[in-house]
Design a protein that fits this description.
By secondary structure, this protein is mostly helical. Helix content is about 70%, strand content about 0%.
Length: about 180
């Protein structure tokens, strides 16, 4: 994901995300324990995102295998873990509270409506069955029985996850530098 592509994604809906990230970096006051716990959560979150991105074939296949066999929105689960991790890493509970409030009461309902409508129109009964059996954010104990889709390294790049990985690494470095500044 190039800088130009990131800048094109800044709009009135996303500006608060970038502003929150900037405030988090500016106010970061990491301690060794907060940085360590946060780093574990960020690493776990990015691992979930890469796992999910490797399966995702947007608008082509209703992927119900891999992480999608356990939870309907593994990319968002990974994002939640990354967000929590960065906030804990930076030792800023206030940004964490604001982020979870915004995600829970704005982003989730909006995305649920848009994505469910799109997936119903694309995949019909297959999506309806999957939707009824797999929760959006709480993982199942056993994977969905009708799993479809395979992990491909190329999908990670097709879904632009390398840009998220780069941003995560930059964020870790910038917050880590606060130890020495």
């Amino acid at each position: 994901m190039s800088v130009g592509r990131i800048l094109r994604k800044i709009n009135k809906k996303t500006i608060w995300l970038y502003a929150g990230a900037a405030i988090l970096l500016i106010t970061a006051n990491p301690t060794k324990p907060s940085f360590t716990v946060g780093l574990v959560l960020v690493g776990l979150g990015e691992t979930v995102r890469v796992w999910a991105a490797g399966y995702l074939q947007k608008n082509q296949v209703l992927v119900t295998n891999g992480p999608y066999g356990y939870v309907k929105n593994p990319l968002y689960v990974g994002t939640i873990l990354i967000t929590a991790g960065f906030c804990i890493m930076a030792n800023n509970i206030y940004i964490l509270a604001v982020a979870f409030f915004g995600f829970t009461f704005y982003y989730i309902p909006y995305k649920k409506k848009v994505e469910s409508t799109r997936l119903k129109s694309l995949f019909g009964k297959s999506f309806a069955d999957y939707d009824a059996q797999v929760d959006d954010y709480m993982p199942r104990r056993q994977p969905y029985e009708k799993g479809e889709g395979n992990w491909r390294f190329g999908n990670v790049f097709e879904n632009s996850e390398e840009g998220i990985v780069a941003l995560v690494v930059i964020g870790i470095i910038l917050i880590g530098m606060r130890f020495w500044i």
